[in-house]
Design a protein that fits this description.
It contains five helices and 14 strands. By secondary structure, it is an alpha+beta fold. The radius of gyration is 27 Å and the shape is globular.
Length: about 325
């Protein structure tokens, strides 16, 4: 209605100055378009679209896709994507060394008491629980140690006493991959002064993405998915994540919507939380929630990445 009144006023003024008629007609058109847009609001994004607006969470998604493309390019055509931690530990740190050693491992503050073997072991296999397998090259103990150190964040504990590796043994451990859990060759490192051993996956030419440094003062935004269900021909994935215990129509509850940001190599899933607006104190308790996300193209062999660090999650068949 406001658009009609504006048009009437413009037309009455135009009768006294005919030379302005073309300009006034143009203004009329602009005013009408603006009024319609204001009434209708922004057009909803189509399901399965691949928008790239300038907001922070979409920038995170695009940066994750770029890091993944770089990782694939550096992998030498690898067919394995590890979704679990490549570095881990077996056992619990003793109280006398626990605080230092835990921080030192996170920082990659590790050194070898003596030079580690540089000879590359024979080729081995990564074997999934469904019986499928793939032949892989195995890293030497020295190369795996270098990867372990490089994966740490030196700023996490610059003053920690370094862990000292005294021995290295090749073994097999279970680790999550983008295709589910699998047994993979692993170096097991003995550490001086503790019964805890540190492990590092020893598979060469795997797709390994390095997330950006974590800034506690400015952490990434979004809800990270923890896993997905779908097949190569799926255009719909079911994703799981930790969310509110209750639904949005209850106090402290929330509902969730999803969006896929896609590339030829990977899919980043954005989960948006819609919380109940009723004020009040809420417990910091969550539960596993699930939601569906629509893809523009079938999943194929693409990786599925969570939004905060761009790391791959396990995708299991329906």
């Amino acid at each position: 209605m406001s658009a009609t009144r504006t048009a009437s006023m413009l037309r009455s003024r135009a009768t006294t100055a005919p030379g302005w008629r073309p300009l006034l007609l143009a203004l009329l058109a602009v005013a009408a378009i603006a009024a319609v847009a204001a009434c209708e609001g922004p057009a909803p994004a189509p399901v399965g679209a691949n928008p790239s607006p300038g907001d922070r969470i979409h920038r995170q998604a695009q940066e994750a896709l770029a890091r993944w493309a770089d990782a694939v390019g550096r992998s030498g055509g690898a067919s394995i994507t590890f979704a679990g931690e490549m570095t881990s530990q077996v056992g619990d740190w003793e109280s006398s060394v626990g605080e230092n050693n835990e921080a030192a491992l996170l920082a990659g503050n590790v050194e070898a008491a003596t030079p580690l073997p540089e000879d590359q072991p024979p080729r081995d296999e990564v074997r999934w629980l469904d019986g499928s397998k793939v032949h892989v090259s195995v890293l030497s103990a020295a190369a795996a140690f270098e990867d372990l150190v490089a994966a740490g964040d030196p700023t996490a504990c610059p003053d920690c006493r370094p862990l000292r590796i005294t021995d290295a043994q090749l073994a097999t451990t279970l680790i999550e991959t983008s295709r589910g859990p699998a047994n993979a060759p692993t170096w097991v490192f003995s550490i001086a002064g503790t019964s805890v051993t540190v492990t590092r996956i020893a598979v060469d030419e795997s797709v390994t993405v390095v997330p950006p440094p974590w800034n506690a003062d400015d952490p990434p935004v979004g809800v990270s998915i923890e896993g997905a269900t779908g097949s190569e021909d799926s255009r719909t994935l079911q994703v799981s994540f930790t969310g509110a215990v209750k639904r949005q129509d209850e106090p402290c509850g929330a509902d969730y919507t999803t969006e896929a940001v896609e590339s030829a190599l990977a899919v980043v899933v954005i989960v948006t939380e819609h919380r109940n607006a009723e004020p009040g104190g809420c417990d910091a308790i969550g539960r596993t929630r699930t939601a569906e996300v629509m893809l523009k193209d079938p999943l194929g062999e693409r990786a599925v990445l969570e939004i905060k660090q761009g790391l791959p999650v396990t995708v299991v068949a329906p």
